[in-house]
Amino acid sequence: xxxxxxxxxxxxxxxxxxxxxxxxxxxxxxxxxxxxxxxxxxxxxxxxxxxxxxxxxxxxxxxxxxxxxxxxxxxxxxxxxxxxxxxxxxxxxxxxxxxxxxxxxxxxxxxxxxxxxxxxxxxxxxxxxxxxxxxxxxxxxxxxxxxxxxxxxxxxxxxxxxxxxxxxxxxxxxxxxxxxx
Length: 181
Known about the structure:
181 residues; mainly alpha; two-stranded parallel ribbon; two-stranded parallel sheet; 9 helices; Erythromycin biosynthesis protein CIII-like C-terminal domain-containing protein; UDP_glucos_trans
């Protein structure tokens, strides 16, 4: 994967920061090659706060976790998502639907051509404009108020009827357990 990333950056003439992280990018043989023979357009980085890092970036490519996606969009970065599992494909689809990133590239479909296409997509001026618009909209959101409203919206208005007290003889009876009579 690291070699594909480096080749895609070379082809698109972009600089890149590879966050070694827990995903194993820093453990590949190619990464050790980069350390031995550094490329002037690649910087290998240990863990770093995304909310700071993404403000320094033109665009971001990442796994698509909710927090990483939010940090990239809040920084007005066009975003390409390479989902591995969980909610990551969902966020990749949402990013693409909003026009701030290409279609997600599932990890088992990750190729040099798809990454080059994703980088070129993110470099289009209209994509950056949409990312800036979305970041401004996110800036104006009041997440705490929204969460409280959602909580109360789904909170039952009426108290449920109290359940009758169990009768000791039926409470301890196996035959009446789990509603079996």
